[in-house]
Amino acid sequence: MSSTLVYTPSEEITSIHAHLVESFHAGKAQSIEYRREQLVQLAYLLQDNTARLVESLMKDLGRPELETYLVEIAPVISEVLHAIKYLDTWVKPEKPGFHLSTIGLSPALHKQPKGVILIIGPFNYPIWCSSAMIGAIAAGCPFVLKPSELTPATSQLLAELFPKYLDQDFYRVVNGAIDETTRLLSLEWAHIVYTGSGRVGRIVATAAAKHLTPITLELGGKSPVVVDSNTDFELLAQRVLWGRMVNAGQTCTAPEYIVVPESAQTKVVEAFKKQYKIFYGDDPKKSESFGRICAHSHWDRIIGCLEKTQGRIVLGGQHDRAEKYIAPTIVQDVSLDDPLMTDEIFGPILAIVPVPNISVALEYIRRHDCPLVVHAFSKDPKFRAYVRENTLSGMFFENDVIVYGASVVTPFGGVGASGYGAYKGKYSYDLFSHAKPCYNSPKWRDIISGLRFPPYTPAKLNRLKIFLLESVPYQRPGQPKPFNWTRLLVLTVLGGVLALNKDRLLAAVGTLRAAVNI
């Protein structure tokens, strides 16, 4: 399989965008059956070419086959099948709740596709992090997928497979680097989804603002693990070590550091030493269960972070630039102001930060950029709840890591510096759909709303105040609760309607009784 990536020419990018816009306006994707057919084709694209995708990701990232099945192929196929199953339900108009303001208007929210979408994927999970395309297809939106140039084999494979499975009038792959991405961002899109660094996320947001384009940013950050002394340390080590080192630590939701009571740090380290041996044997470099860093530039950055730490390396630390290898590394006695705590590491290094008490840890988390995920490990549900309620993060996970990424019934996304907007499952469909409020106002409704028409008279004003102006029904401090005149008025009107229709109501009751007695 060739790892040579063919960049899309700039002029072709412009024509692709224009063609997708015309295709959208032609209305073909309005058909629910068409959307379903394309989703089925996407599922087959993944199923038929699993071996090739595994091979390309091994070439790009040195990623073990099992990891690719586990974290990319299986969950994305599952999400496609979920969308196919529930598409008919998602597209139905939604009925909002009742309110006096919409009596007689038959309000409903009708879903309409927003338009042509741009999805900019990252290098670390080229398939999973591009799964917003599932929601775009389901919503009836054409899209351009821009995979990362740092995974050339996989990006080129996607460019080859798309025309074989998906309608090229609606779904295209554009390959390239900075120049090609800049060209894409200069065009007008209905929505942009970007996954990657905060630095590039700001560039994307600035470009989108020129066209008032809504965007969804998934930016990662430093996700902590808050550990209680009352914890199953063996479970902690097994799950956190896997979550930190899967895909060689290049996971946006991976735990970056552990904050643990000073008295429990030794127990944590010993548990990690035991699990480390089980996972990787005597030499992780020879292990078939551990990948490599995607590029030498990233390798240099990660090693630079490791060389600056004042903590003590207790596991790993070995590295080989030629092979883009960095051993799974555990560093203990890391202080909250250590260089390892400055920026997202995005590599196979886990910092263990001892703190005097939980309050210090939570204060630190609150005072820094909102992480994508906060994890809490404890046998005590009150401890876990306390961490959840006293931190702000995109997501929260108790006693485990990363596996929530496979969920298709909850949104996936950050908050603050870790991003904004969310997708997955129906949330992806909603992201690319405009929920248009629709109403129908019958003639009889002017009995209520006819007061709006000129001429404005004192009599109309008095009637408006009586019928439409609600009084605040809540008690003021130190005063008796006010009487709810609005409720009385509604009951009075309903009573009048029943009185005027007394004979019809009694006849209906009689008919009902007769039917029951049959």
Automatic annotation (TrEMBL):
Active site: E218, C252
Keyword field: NAD, Oxidoreductase
GO biological process terms held by the UniProt record: aldehyde metabolic process
Residue ranges of every copy of the Aldehyde dehydrogenase domain listed in the record: 12-436
One function term, GO molecular function aspect: aldehyde dehydrogenase (NAD+) activity
Record-level GO cellular component terms: cytoplasm
InterPro entries per record: Ald_DH/histidinol_DH, Ald_DH_C, Ald_DH_CS_GLU, Ald_DH_N, Aldehyde_DH_dom, Aldehyde_DH_NAD(P)
The keyword Oxidoreductase appears for this protein: yes
Superkingdom, natural source: Eukaryota
Pfam families with a match to the protein in the record: Aldedh
Keyword NAD: yes
Family membership: Belongs to the aldehyde dehydrogenase family.
Full protein name: Aldehyde dehydrogenase
Lineage summary: Eukaryota, Fungi, Dikarya, Basidiomycota, Agaricomycotina
